[in-house]
Amino acid sequence: MCALAEYCRHAGANVEGSDVQEVFYTDEILKSLEIPVHTPFKSGNLPSHIDYLFYSAAYDADNNPELAEAARRGIPGMSYPQALGMISRGQPTGAVAGVHGKTTTTALAGSMAQAAGLPVGVIVGSGVSNFNGRSCLFLGDKGLIAETCEYRRHFLNISPRWLIVTSIEPDHLDYFRDYGDILDAFTEYALKLPENGTLIYCADDAGASELAGKMRILRADLRLIPYGFSADGEYGIQNYRVEGERLVAELAGFSEPLRLRIPGRHSVLNAAAAAALVTVMGADQGLSLDRQKLLSGCEEFRGSRRRSEIVGEAGGILFMDDYAHHPTAIRTTLRGLREFYPNRRLVVDFMSHTYSRTAALFDGFASAFGDADELVLHDIYASAREDSGGVSGEQLYRKTAEIHRSVRYYPEPADSLEELDSFLSPGDLFISMGAGNNWLVSHELYNRRKGRTA
């Protein structure tokens, strides 16, 4: 919603909005854009005159008083996915989808597009350092690169010409029945590509590769472009290594190496996908982009909010925050951090998000923290779409403690601050993980240490 507000403001609209009272990094972005935000939700927040109302797909007239008031007043409106779909239909669009990696891939594509001179707009579901901390980048009017979400098949609102699929595996099991159901959703999305459209897929991911196999049968007109360590063609990754807190690898079709300052093999996969999208979008629009400049945009990429985000370093401790909230994302992120920072003790604070996901992937969560030296768990963070379930944070702690050598449990993130503050030592890497509100822990601990060393 923050990205959409920014997009509308850039288009010349007068924008204001409402939110819950909890403070999040998006508040900083909205404040910098001088967009008023009312809290909490209430019908009186709606101005007397509104041309259009956009709203999060998490809300409807039954659970939000402002939407109920808008319905009573006959104010036209649409959800965020519908609004993004409307924007995509007005211009050639490169969409990024997948259970994992879509935010970083989209942000990397924006950084590469900026460096290589691809005149497009970019919409990401996070604040991006290279976008001046915001969620949108405006480089020109020759197209759009947008992050799109599979939950409740929201991405079917989008009409892409080029589509990246990073990964397909079970998630959002409060909505999707199983893997087959989520694969069907991605299949339906890929079938929306126009004649001679392009599917860019991760050859290392079983789900994305299965989708590509289906498209070979269902849509022989599509151009299929694989990327990854096992991929043939221009975007095959070779000679991967870590050099001085940089990831380095070669793409088969590029003369210069790809360099990244963010950790993890999955980050190289995301960069390869972004390079493919930007290159193909440019070529299809008659633009021959300088590949060396494109790769410079990759090395210049400093990450996005809550994706291996460096909060700061104080007292010899590196504080980070990451949005990983699925067992696969947790494993790949922690593996990347272990590889990138081999000499640091890795202390992880994790808060699971939604009861349905925790229950469906319970064993996977419990076994996902093998690379952590120390682990802290909390109660489950509920979402707007559910407030209870048949599993608890304490149950997850007990199961994880059967597997992990050192795990602690504090129901609320704030409960852990004092012990963590005394427990952390110079040389540690502390990372908060998850889609809950425990991101406050890494920020608070960093501020405490910073205050002592000032």
Topology:
Elements: H1 2-10, E1 17-18, H2 25-32, E2 37-38, E3 53-55, H3 65-73, E4 77-79, H4 80-89, E5 93-97, H5 102-116, E6 121-123, E7 136-138, E8 144-147, E9 162-165, H6 179-191, E10 198-202, H7 206-218, E11 223-227, E12 237-242, E13 247-251, E14 258-260, H8 265-284, H9 291-299, E15 309-314, E16 317-322, H10 327-340, E17 346-350, H11 355-360, H12 362-366, E18 374-377, H13 393-401, E19 407-409, H14 417-423, E20 429-433, H15 439-453
Parallel strand pairs: 1-2, 3-4, 5-8, 5-9, 6-8, 9-10, 10-11, 16-20, 17-18, 17-20, 18-19
Antiparallel strand pairs: 6-7, 12-13, 13-14, 15-16
Please give a structural write-up:
This protein has 15 helices and 20 strands. It is of the alpha/beta class and 454 residues long.
Number of strands: 20
Please indicate the percent range of residues in DSSP E strands (runs of 2 or more): 15-25%
Distance from first to last alpha carbon: 37 Å
Tertiary shape: globular
Task: Give the biggest sheet.
Answer: 7 strands, mixed
- Helicity, as a percent range: 25-40%
Derived from helix and strand composition plus strand pairing, the structural class reads alpha/beta
Strand order of the largest sheet: 7-6-8-5-9-10-11
Low-confidence stretches: none
Average predicted confidence as pLDDT: 90
| Rounded radius of gyration (Å) | 22 Å
- How many H/I helices? 15
Q: Could you write a compact summary of the structure shown?
A:
36% of the residues lie in helices and 18% in strands. The protein has 454 residues and is α/β, with parallel strands linked by helices. Helix 5 crosses helix 9.
